[in-house]
Amino acid sequence: DARVTQTPRHKVTEMGQEVTMRCQPILGHNTVFWYRQTMMQGLELLAYFRNRAPLDDSGMPKDRFSAEMPDATLATLKIQPSEPRDSAVYFCASSLGAVREQFFGPGTRLTVL
Amino acid sequence: ELKVEQNPLFLSMQEGKNYTIYCNYSTTSDRLYWYRQDPGKSLESLFVLLSNGAVKQEGRLMASLDTKARLSTLHITAAVHDLSATYFCAVLHNTGNQFYFGTGTSLTVIP
Fold first, then answer.
1. Which of A55, A98, A102 comes nearest B45 by C-beta?
2. pLDDT tens-digit profile of A80-104?
3. Most buried among A13, A30, B87, B108, using CB within 10 Å?
4. Where are the beta strands (DSSP E) in chain A?
5. Structure confidence by residue, pLDDT tens digits, A8-27
């Protein structure tokens, strides 16, 4: 049963700390997306990659957020330093190309105190 | 920037009734997606609509796309409680590099 996995599922940290979230896309999927969901802003696209190359990261605050794909089986999203306003659920999704449906991971619920 | 608007934002309907959720978007696209999200859960893909006039049906849900009107609809037939969830539409800009979600429609089906 192929699925997107994300770790950790929950993270509580203090303001100023570094946070790293990891995503394993479905094997064979070449497009990976990072989203953030909050009650106020809804679902926002932060960044996405195709064949490990970043295609769009315009939704990501550049000063503190970074997204990478070290290899085809791992995508990371880092926040350094974290702030309380970063508290949200972060979803990773993967697909076979941008046009195809996206399969979402279970999300990482981040709380920054 | 591409804007995607859904209405209604909140919908409470009785079991057995029919209703339609609307998704309007502001710029050219012929790629539209519908997702479902249960409370506290992740998003699940429902439909992928890839051309003008596309219609897809699954159970009590039917989605359609009119690219000329920049409108997609999600029609619910004879609602049942299990359909209670938040429904999102999402649009891929024709450049292929920008992907936008609507605000979501929270549906509650009442017995």
1. A102
2. 999 999 999 999 999 998 778 899 9
3. B87
4. 5-7, 10-13, 19-24, 31-38, 42-50, 53-56, 65-71, 74-79, 88-95, 103-104, 108-112
5. 999 999 999 999 999 999 99
Closest CB to B92 among A91, A99, A106: A99
Cβ–Cβ < 8 Å for B35, B46:
yes
Query: Cα B10 to chain center, whole Å?
Result: 13
A91/B100 CB distance under 8 A: no
Q: B32 with B49: CB under 8 angstroms? A: yes
- A58 pLDDT tier (thresholds 50, 70, 90): confident
8 Å CB contact between B70 and A19: no
